[in-house]
Each structure stands twice: as C-alpha cells, then as structure tokens.
From TrEMBL:
<dbReference type="InterPro" id="IPR019626">
    <property type="entry name" value="Stress-induced_KGG_rpt"/>
</dbReference>
<dbReference type="Pfam" id="PF10685">
    <property type="entry name" value="KGG"/>
</dbReference>
<feature type="compositionally biased region" description="Basic and acidic residues">
    <location>
        <begin position="1"/>
        <end position="29"/>
    </location>
</feature>
<protein>
    <submittedName>
        <fullName>Glucose starvation-inducible protein B</fullName>
    </submittedName>
</protein>
<feature type="compositionally biased region" description="Basic and acidic residues">
    <location>
        <begin position="41"/>
        <end position="109"/>
    </location>
</feature>
<feature type="region of interest" description="Disordered">
    <location>
        <begin position="1"/>
        <end position="123"/>
    </location>
</feature>
<dbReference type="InterPro" id="IPR052590">
    <property type="entry name" value="Stress/Virulence-Domain"/>
</dbReference>
Amino acid sequence: MAQDNKMSREEAGRKGGETTSKNHDKEFYQEIGQKGGEATSKNHDKEFYQEIGEKGGEATSKNHDKEFYQEIGEKGGEATSENHDKEFYQEIGRKGGEATSKNHDKEFYQEIGSKGGNARDND
C-alpha cells in the first residue's frame, strides 16, 4: 500500500519558519514588522486599534496578577526616567494638569483635597 508523504500545513509552516529564521537576522524581522505595521495602519482606523487594544487588555488581565502589572510599571518607569530629563516631567505634568482641569469641576478638587488631607493626618 502506498504511503502518503504529504506534510501537514502546520508542519510545513513550522519548517518554513525554521528555515527563514536561519537565513535572516533581527534587522530583517524589524523591517518586515515595520512594513506590516505601516500597511495595517493604512487599512484600519482608530476604532480598529481601540477594539484590538481592548481585547488584548482583557486577555492580558485574565492571565496576569497585580504583581505582574507592578513589575512592568516599575520597569517602564525606570526606562522612562533613564531616557528623559526634568523638563520632560515638567511638560507632561503641565499637560496632565491642564487636561484634568478641563475634565473636572471645583467639587472634584475639594474631594481629592479632602482625601489627601485625611491621608496626611493618618501618617
């Protein structure tokens, strides 16, 4: 009886990926990734990215705990502080303050001020 030597699609894909990775370096993958990202951005709008971001965030939150987020936040903060100076933080602080003031009224500031005062009293 003849034996079927056809490779599964999964097997062919795996072998092709292994061969490609042997023949190309990091820069190759960065370049094709950039081209793919540019092509995707031309074909999709803001809502598309919001939707996939939300789905990714939900999936990530199901798979990770509070410590995971603390660790990546700390790493991100350290990387940011290594790459930016005092003026950068002053500028983003100013922008954040302006955005907050546009979105909140006097009562909001009274409430957070009261909470801050109470926290300080407990120290």
